[in-house]
Amino acid sequence: MKGTSILFPAALLFLITACQKHPEKAEKKAAAPLPSVIAFGSCSNQYLPQPLWDDIRADHPDLWIWLGDNIYGDSYVMDTLRKKYQRAKMNPGYAALRAQTKIIGVWDDHDYGLNDGGREYPRKDSSKTLLLDFLDIPEEAAVRSHPGVYQSFLFGEGAQKLKVILLDTRYFRDSLTPSTRPGRRYEQNESGDMLGEAQWQWLESELAANDAAVTLLGSSIQVLHEEHGWEKWDNLPKARQRLFDLIRKYKPRNLLILSGDRHIAEMARMDLEGYGPLYEITSSGLTHTWSSGKSEANKYRVDENLIIHKNYGLIRIDWSGAQPALRVEIKGDKGVVYGSWDLQR
User: Is residue 231 a part of any domain in this protein?
Assistant: First the structure.
């Protein structure tokens, strides 16, 4: 177990809400109860052993957040995707978690239906319906009436609020630029976009109206990493800069980014000029990780603690003090803790 204290510029509070918004029309809903334990993860192959659900349930999370690759679908045939979702949903361990915990989430590429896919995927609207059904999203929810699967959620009230904003990095994303360099799949597309204008406008409205003491920003792919040659926000640097500019403009208090996709886990920190420390915790994967113990450079990684084990993320919040005390952990089978970081004032 590795412990690290990380100082945020302001108190760390987590806000998540049952408020789902459309870019043009906001829905006002009563805030859901404030969670004190939040679990999250990604990359769960429905055909592989799934040993972590009992560990996750043993932590008694109030909320589970899917960060993508919730199944491995990779198909243009919706009946194929539907059956794979059904298999995943019927897994006894996951079914038991659903019975005790609120579930929210977003997709990545394999559950979207196309490996590394973006806006070119022709079945994305049909695939969207399957994802929302898998997540048990109500028929009247705002997310069902707009393109893409982006949503926000608010928990708590008054000074104790936790907000989760889940971004859709697939539905609107422009094409990536293939790399000819060994060991890399992609290079930068200098003009490409990640979110699409409607989602950008929605995100700005979410940040402008956000009075949460802490905000979780869910992105299926990594935001801070610049060095590896696979999918990441840095492949579309104009879009990444636009995201950073919004963070600087609205200065959400104690923003923490959650990501998946990479089949490893790590904590990263960037000192973002005009904002301060910006943190990202990556948790991946639930059923499979890298097959070897190779290393990978990441200048933003905290403690050089690259975790190559099946894993999930856990956030514990103590709300009893004047400011909440928060610990982020990366955990594995049989309760092992691979990484631990205290986020405090």
Answer: yes
What is the distance of C-alpha 225 from the center of its chain? 15
pTM for the whole thing?
A: 0.91
pLDDT at 343: 76
Closest to 92 in 3D by CA, of 37, 60, 59, 49: 49
Distances (CA, A) of 216 to 46, 235, 315: 27, 22, 11
Instruction: Provide the domain count of the chain.
Output: 1
The confidence score (pLDDT) of residue 177 equals: 97
- Does the residue 340 lie in any domain? no
Cα separations (Å) of 235 from 42, 130, 259? 21, 28, 16
On whether the CB atoms of residues 327 and 343 are closer than 8 A, the answer is yes
Domain with 284, as residue range(s), is 13-315
Asked, for residue 106, whether it belongs to a domain, the answer is yes
Residue at 8 is within a domain: no
- pLDDT, averaged per 10 consecutive residues of the chain (345 residues), comes to 51 39 45 88 98 98 98 98 98 98 98 98 98 97 98 93 96 97 95 98 98 92 97 98 98 93 96 94 97 88 93 90 84 97 73
pLDDT at 342: 87
**Is the CB of residue 261 less than 8 Å from the CB of residue 297?**
no
Distance CA 203, CA 166 (A): 10
> Phi first, then psi: what are they for 298, rounded to 5°?
-155, 105
pLDDT of residue 30: 55
Both tokens assigned to 31: 């805030």
In terms of DSSP bridges, do strands 255-259 and 325-331 run parallel, antiparallel, or are they unpaired?
unpaired
What CATH number should be reported for the domain holding residue 153?
3.60.21.70
